[in-house]
Specification:
A hairpin with a 6-residue loop joins strand 7 and strand 8. 18% of the residues are buried. The chain is built from one helix and eight strands; from the N terminus they run H-E-E-E-E-E-E-E-E. The strands form two sheets. Strands 1-8-7-3-5 form a five-stranded mixed beta sheet, with no helix packed on it. Helices cover 13% and strands 49% of the residues. The chain is elongated. The chain has one helix spanning 2-19; strands spanning 35-42, 46-54, 61-68, 73-77, 84-86, 91-99, 105-116, 123-135.
C-alpha cells in the first residue's frame, strides 16, 4: 500500500511538471514563425515580413514595446499603438521591414517584443529573427 501511494505521488508530480510545460504557463507570446529567411536578395531593397503573435495565457498581457536591433529594422503592430493589451487568445499581426541599402553579405536582424502581465514586475521578451544574404547591386 505504501509503495502504491509513493508511486501515485510520483505520477502526480510528473503530471504537474508536464502540465507546466504547456504554452499557457510559459512566458512570452506564441508565434508559429519566429524566423524568416529571405534567401539571396539584391542590396537596396526593403524586405518585409509579417509575424502573428497570439496570447495563449489565460490572462491578458500588455505589449509594451516592439523594437528592432538597429535603425535599418522597423517593426510595428498593424494599426495599433503601444502599449497594447492582448486578451487571452487574441492575436496581433506585426509588420517588420529591413532597409538593405548599402549593406552586403550575411545579415541577421532581431526584433524584440516586450510584454508584461498581472504579476508584479513580470517582464517577458519574445524574439523574432530575420535573415538575408545581400548581393551587391
Amino acid at each position: 500500500m505504501e509503495s502504491f501511494l509513493n508511486l501515485s505521488l510520483l505520477a502526480t508530480g510528473v503530471g504537474l511538471l508536464l502540465v507546466l510545460q504547456l504554452p499557457i504557463f510559459q512566458g512570452g507570446l506564441f508565434t508559429a514563425q519566429t524566423y524568416r529567411d529571405f534567401g539571396k536578395v539584391r542590396s537596396g531593397k526593403t524586405l518585409r515580413a509579417e509575424f502573428v503573435l497570439t496570447n495563449l495565457h489565460p490572462w491578458p498581457v500588455v505589449v509594451q514595446q516592439i523594437a528592432g536591433d538597429c535603425g535599418c529594422t522597423n517593426a510595428l503592430p498593424q494599426e495599433k499603438s503601444l502599449p497594447l493589451r492582448l486578451l487571452p487568445l487574441q492575436s496581433l499581426p506585426v509588420n517588420v521591414s529591413i532597409n538593405t541599402y548599402g549593406r552586403e553579405g550575411d545579415v541577421t536582424r532581431t526584433v524584440t517584443i516586450t510584454t508584461t502581465d498581472q504579476r508584479p514586475q513580470y517582464v517577458e521578451e519574445t524574439y523574432l529573427y530575420l535573415h538575408a544574404y545581400l548581393l551587391r547591386n
